[in-house]
Design a protein that fits this description.
The complex is a heterodimer of chains A (257) and B (193). Chain A is built from 10 helices and no strands. Chain A has 257 residues and is an all-alpha fold. Chain A is globular and about 75 Å long. By secondary structure, chain B is α/β, with parallel strands linked by helices. Chain B is globular, with a radius of gyration of 17 Å. The mean pLDDT of chain B is 92. The chains are: A mainly alpha (257), B alpha/beta (193).
Chain lengths: 257, 193
């Protein structure tokens, strides 16, 4: 308990130190177009929060990026699972996944704008960015499954559903978790970047773009803080749900088999 | 004889592990495979349960038979409880309540609902034994099942094995002749087979 208090205290001190540096830098530069301090950012946020359009933009971007992430998450696990079971499928998917990883997001954004317009741009971009990460981690997790446990399951004639629950999911989860950690952040970065390029109506990207046009640095930083906050909350929620799939330790009564 | 092994041979590269092994087992007895390290006890058990192919020879009497096994390593799902591990392999008619009661005969009550990775080596071994005994099987194979158990616990587990395997074919490997005696098992020297 005491240790936790000290940890949090030192974290707050570090955060306070950097906020002070930021405020001092803004004061020294003295130009609100180049840099505003944390206080002005908070004031800008205070101006934005009561506005209905602020919440609509967050909801719209959140919905689209989440949809892109979740569909890529499902597709990545499904394709990874099929690739693990059927080697030709794995070989077939390899160049596609390598291509998705290598092509710059900006190129995909331009292509997606040409093909599909700007309305659902962030869904598509989040999907394209997240898919290879989840696929690769799913495959790596499944390939790391303990052969000895699979032998045990074979001898005991354990059903496929029990094998998935007791053997594959625990092997997969650490890989999926680490893949998700990166993919969640990347989905928000790429999704908002796509919105800034495509400028769909009522989106966080549109608001960032408008703030840039009017050289409103305080609004840019306020929206950036919103993106960070929403993305961190989303990450915590998704990782928390993943952790619920397998018991992490301690005494517990499982829900039966 | 319910299980007959004829001229069974197996080599790993240049290493001949089993050579022309001939054995016969009745369908309701406990057999202790004994032999020095490297005489192929584990390989023999793996061939019986179909996890390893023999280079030559025949095995009669395993078709359609259900195996249960205590591996040399525990091979438990570490994130789950002993109860989950037992239920995973248990026969369909086994309820969680009954499985819990059976586990409590070998393990302290409070450890039955703790994740396996928090248990001691001996507790894990007893869980593996219990899992094998509560599964549906015709032939039970046990590869050094009493490793890591202290003398008192070993007696308790041996008693449990005798009770639960009554009337079934059990083949186990061990280095310790006293264990074979306590089990009332027929000793089979693999190095002379």
């Amino acid at each position: 308990m005491k240790c936790n208090g000290i940890k949090w205290g030192s974290r707050l001190l570090a955060a306070g130190f950097w906020l002070l540096v930021w405020q001092l830098a803004a004061f020294v530069i003295g130009n609100h177009i180049i840099l505003v301090g944390p206080w002005d950012t908070v004031l800008a946020l205070g101006r934005l929060i009561p506005d209905w359009d602020f919440w609509r933009s967050i909801a719209s971007s959140f919905g689209k990026i989440t949809m892109g992430f979740l569909s890529a998450f499902a597709a990545g696990i499904a394709l990874g699972g099929i690739g693990y079971c059927i080697t030709p499928v794995k070989e077939l998917m390899e160049p596609i996944m390598a291509l998705l990883k290598a092509v710059p997001v900006a190129s995909f954004v331009i292509l997606a704008l040409i093909w599909a317009g700007s309305a659902n741009l962030s869904v598509l971009i989040a999907f394209i960015v997240v898919l290879p990460m989840i696929y690769i981690n799913t495959l790596a997790g499944l390939e790391s499954t303990d052969i000895k446990l699979l032998e045990m399951a074979r001898v005991f004639r354990i059903t496929i559903w029990k094998k998935i629950r007791y053997i594959y999911v625990p092997a997969l989860l650490p890989y999926l978790r680490s893949g998700c950690r990166i993919a969640l952040g990347m989905s928000w970065k790429s999704g908002v970047a796509a919105e800034v390029i495509g400028v769909p109506d009522h989106s966080i990207g549109e608001k960032l773009y408008m703030a840039k046009i009017y050289l409103n640095t305080a609004d840019v930083l306020a929206w950036t803080a919103v993106i960070i906050l929403v993305s961190v909350l989303f990450e915590k929620a998704v990782l928390g749900l993943l952790d619920c799939l397998v018991p992490q330790g301690g005494v517990y009564e499982s829900d039966g088999s | 004889m319910s299980l007959t092994v004829r001229n069974l041979s197996k080599a790993f590269g240049d290493l001949q592990v089993l050579q022309e092994v001939n054995l016969a087992f009745r369908d309701n007895g406990i057999y202790c495979l004994m032999g020095a390290s490297g005489t192929g006890k584990t390989t023999f058990l793996r061939i019986l349960m179909g996890l390893c192919k023999a280079d030559s020879g025949e095995i009669e009497g395993v078709e359609g038979k259900r195996f249960s096994v205590v591996f040399q390593e525990d091979r438990l799902c570490e994130s789950y409880t002993p109860l989950d591990n037992v239920m995973m392999a248990a026969e369909r008619s086994m309820t969680r309540e009954n499985a819990k009661k059976e586990l409590c005969r070998l393990l302290p009550k409070e450890s039955v609902l703790r994740p396996v990775h928090t248990l001691s080596g001996g507790m894990k071994r007893r869980t593996a034994v219990c899992r094998a005994l509560l599964a549906a099987y015709d032939i039970l194979l046990m590869d050094e099942p009493f490793t890591g158990l202290d003398e008192d616990t070993k007696r308790q587990v041996i008693q449990y094995v005798r009770e639960k395997t009554d009337g079934k074919l059990v083949i186990l490997s061990t280095h310790i002749e006293e264990d074979a005696r306590e089990l009332g098992a027929q000793v089979v020297r693999l190095d002379h087979a």
